[in-house]
Amino acid sequence: MSDVLNGEGMGRRIEVLDEVPPGELPDVLKLIDEAAGTDGQPAVSEQGRLQLRGGRREGVRHFLLREEDGTLAGYAQLEDTDPVEAPAAELVVHPAHRAGGHGRALGRTLLDASGQRLRVWAHGGHSAARHLAQTLGLTLFRELRQMRRPLEGPLPAEPRLPDGVTVRTFRPGEDETAWLAANAAAFAHHPEQGSLGRRDLDDRMSEDWFDPAGFFLALRDGRVIGFHWTKTHAAEGLGEVYAVGVTPEAQGGGLGKALTAIGLRHLAERGLPAAMLYVDADNVPAVTVYERLGFTVHETDLMYRTES
Predict the structure, then answer these.
(1) In this structure, which long-range contacts are made by residues 210-216, counting pairs with CB atoms below 8 Å and at least 24 apart in sequence?
(2) Global confidence as pTM
(3) How far apart, in whole angstroms, are the C-alpha atoms of residue 57 and residue 48?
(4) What is the mean pLDDT of each run of 10 residues along the chain (308 residues)?
């Protein structure tokens, strides 16, 4: 599908696509990267970039905003795959083309495309994004914190695993199905992590950063009951607590804390000076655990939504 909209006035047009053509993909990725250089973080998440590069996906649409001369000035993505929640969106305008109403035009187009039921991420929570959300009539309802801690100096104590639990690293070609089941159980109520499918896992395993040596599985009686998937951001010199999960029947016994410690010690052994993670601000138990492990808030991502 490809529709061309006027984009709320003369001087711009917005093309709506089910898939960004390969010849245009480098321009969109360049726009995202150049905006990130100005803003300090990408306006389009890892999941959004994977969906941008990965071809057509059910429920995902792409919005390319061009100025009158054809210059690509903005990009937005709308994902409508959650059977309950409103469609989720991310949008970005190139720094050289801001203050011209492009963000508002993309936002109103997203509202129309979503049937006036919309959730929008504002990564970093910048004032311009907060102002745009207010202009579009959106209200704040979710706060995602990025927390960091140094890996130089004292590390968490040697982890103590619950009785009957062993830990080994992920085996590509063998553990995919078991991990997906454990992840779905551990994050049954999480709006993004819990919905990951095989294609999402395969996409991440094909990325340059993927390293099974940093992907730890906890097993009891041969079943995966927990995991800690770490990630390395080589350019930034950062390790990431990418995903820590414990299945419901194994929660409450200290396994999550032990797995977190295993991953942090692994990242420190890689010579990385610091580690980061993301956690919802209202997940008080998790925030408390991470604070006790030495993590402090580095920045915050905000999500806004329509009232309906």
Answers:
(1) 212/169, 212/170, 212/171, 212/172, 213/169, 213/266, 214/169, 214/263, 214/266, 214/267, 214/270, 215/169, 215/170, 216/167, 216/168, 216/169, 216/170, 216/259, 216/262, 216/263, 216/266
(2) 0.81
(3) 11
(4) 55 95 96 94 92 91 97 97 90 95 96 96 85 92 93 86 96 98 91 83 94 98 97 92 95 92 95 94 89 92 88
